[in-house]
Design a protein that fits this description.
The complex is a heterodimer of chains A (about 350) and B (about 180).
Chain A: H1 3-10, H2 15-25, H3 38-65, H4 70-75, H5 89-98, E1 100-108, E2 111-120, E3 124-132, E4 144-146, E5 151-154, H6 157-160, E6 165-174, E7 182-191, E8 206-219, E9 223-238, E10 249-250, E11 256-264, E12 267-280, E13 284-290, E14 300-302, E15 306-309, E16 314-316, E17 318-324, E18 329-335, E19 345-349, E20 355-357
Antiparallel strand pairs in A: 1-2, 2-3, 3-7, 4-8, 5-8, 6-7, 8-9, 10-12, 11-12, 11-14, 12-13, 13-18, 15-16, 15-19, 17-18, 19-20
Chain B: H1 3-11, H2 16-37, H3 40-57, H4 66-86, H5 94-102, H6 118-131, H7 134-144, H8 150-157, H9 161-182
Helix pairs in contact in B: 1-2, 2-3, 2-4, 3-4, 7-9, 8-9
Classes of the chains: A alpha+beta (about 350), B mainly alpha (about 180).
């Protein structure tokens, strides 16, 4: 056998293993790194204890407020530069202010699911769940998910159907300790209705989420989804507009022409569109452009727009939905993989070369 | 968008499927291609070829894990592209170093039957990977599946370069023994 043949065979590695390695590459899983000698640990512990004695109550208060820095862990390194520590103090402050402490626990079939935190800018939301297995049961690895998640909208908006939310997917944040029975999962929700006139998540709308099936993906010759636990974990929550995450910033004062691609059967064809507005929010943006002569629905995709921060971080805008107002204006919602504090923004780079600086 | 929704778009022959794939996995595929090809233009073409291959494969195929399905196609197409490019121009990049390291595990003699034994070898390699600890397995795959550099792996795993190298050397040694035992080396 030659080395090239072996390289090809390695390409047949099971998908679950390949994805497992990817989590390290993406920084979702981190190893403990270099171990510290016990003597050093005792010395460090002594210094920490001394510091705690000195600052006592202040540390206790701040420490209680921050939820184990889960958002830093989740949002760091998600920009194009792939920097490991890119959350700025302003971004951190924004997240802390926008965080809603839900703190609801439901136990079903021995499994306790706690929805502890939620965060939204009105269009995109993240819900953090902790799952604790019954005593003696282990939850190990990173392939846990809940199955189909029905999301019900309660209250006044229910009949009008003004709020439309779709589940955008689960991610497992951590497996605190492979030897224990707890995992932390994050559910990303996005508002699938881009029209400005509709009610948004921040307007006090109540949502009910019912989780029914905890699954684990395993491999034994083929990928198998195993049901770990079935039950009914129901949570009702709402966001209010008291946080600072619902701020908006109109970036454009004059239209800009942006490069785009139009998907024609099997090929992308270069084109351009006239973008008339770009409203930036903490985790999403709304963009409008004039409908080109060949019409909407012909597969037009703008090239990537980047929000560039003062520290050089380039955050790509990812298209989540679009709609046509039938009056020649196309409206699209974009989301960001990390929160944006307007104070950090240097400029928005539109495809085609136009840079709009934020004062 | 959930993977299932993207796959449904492919089944519905909606061209938006490509865009959604690109949005969610474009960077992932590009990083695999770039590690092999070390050239922006070639990598972009390789990613485009991947989308085309996926468009042609789904339906009828319904991949269980879309990310690994895409990654595998990108890796395969990128290695093919690298081979055809290197037929007339020797190139560098991590793939050359990775191949150099993998020489430890094999005899180096071309074996025509390998192509016919691919399924058996795939089972063998997965059995071997199963015997490794999660960290060893992930380091091995980052190096020889994703073709990440030693320095990048050291950063991702928060290990020193020398620790990564020695871990890889031990794993290659284990693999060599497995291949020898099964008569494939």
């Amino acid at each position: 056998m030659t080395n090239e043949q072996l390289l090809d065979i390695i390409g047949e590695a099971d998908g679950a293993y390949v994805l497992g390695a990817r989590k390290y590459r993406d920084g979702i899983v981190k190893t403990e790194g270099k171990r510290i000698a016990y003597r050093k640990i005792w010395l460090i512990a002594a210094i920490i204890a001394l510091c705690l004695l000195l600052v006592g109550c202040t540390v206790a208060y701040v420490g209680g407020y921050l939820p184990d820095n889960w958002f830093e862990f989740f949002f760091s390194g998600r920009d194009e530069t792939q920097a490991l520590e890119v959350i700025s103090p302003e971004q951190q402050e924004l997240l802390e202010q926008g965080l809603v402490n839900v703190g609801q626990s439901v136990t079903s079939n021995g499994y306790t699911v706690t929805m502890d935190y939620a965060i939204t800018d009105g269009y995109n939301a993240y819900l953090k769940f902790r799952v604790d297995a019954p005593e003696g049961e282990m939850l190990a690895g990173y392939t846990y998910r809940f199955g189909e998640v029905p999301i019900e909208i309660l209250g006044d908006h229910r009949s009008g159907g003004q709020v439309s939310v779709s589940s955008a997917g689960w991610q497992q944040l951590e497996d605190n300790d492979a030897e224990d029975g707890s995992i932390v999962l994050l559910l990303e929700l996005s508002d699938s209705n881009p029209e400005e006139s509709t009610a948004k998540m921040t307007e006090g709308t109540e949502y009910t989420i019912v989780l029914n099936t905890l699954q684990k993906t395993t491999y034994s010759g083929e990928i198998v989804k195993t049901v770990v636990a079935e039950g009914e974990w129901e949570f009702t929550f709402s966001f209010d507009d008291s946080g600072s995450m619902d701020g908006k910033l109109d970036v454009l004062t004059v239209p800009v022409r942006c490069t785009a691609h139009r998907w024609l059967w099997r090929w992308y064809v270069k084109t351009s569109v006239k973008v008339t507005s770009f409203e930036l929010r903490a985790m999403t943006a709304t963009l409008t452009y004039e409908e080109p002569w060949y019409g909407y629905g012909t597969g037009i995709y703008l090239d990537t727009i980047y929000v560039v921060l003062d520290n050089g971080t380039r955050i790509p805008a990812i298209r989540s939905s679009g709609s046509n107002d039938m009056r020649g204006i196309i409206e699209e919602i974009y989301r960001f993989n990390m929160p944006i504090s307007f104070a950090d923004v240097d400029y928005v780079a539109f495809p085609g070369g136009e840079k709009v600086y934020i004062p | 968008m959930e993977d299932n929704q993207i796959i449904d778009l492919y089944f519905a022959r909606q061209e938006q499927a490509i865009q959604e794939t690109d949005t969610k996995y474009g960077g992932y595929c590009y990083s695999i291609a770039y590690n092999i090809l070390t050239n922006r233009e070639d990598s972009e073409e390789s990613v485009s070829d991947t989308y085309m291959a996926v468009w042609n494969a789904i339906p009828p195929k319904r991949p269980n894990i879309l990310a690994s399905f895409l990654g595998k196609i990108t890796r395969h197409l990128s290695i093919d592209r690298w081979r055809s490019r290197n037929a007339y121009k020797r190139g560098g990049g991590e793939i050359v170093l990775a191949l150099d390291e993998l020489e430890d595990c094999v005899s180096g003699e071309e074996s025509a039957e390998i192509a016919y034994l691919r399924k058996e070898l795939a089972v063998l390699i997965n059995r071997f990977l199963e015997t490794l600890s999660e960290t060893e397995r992930s380091v091995f795959l980052c190096r020889y599946w994703y073709m990440d550099s030693i320095a990048d792996i050291a950063t991702d795993f928060r290990f020193s370069d020398s620790k990564v190298k020695s871990m890889l050397m031990r794993t290659r040694d284990k693999l060599r023994r497995v291949l020898e035992k099964e008569g494939y080396a």
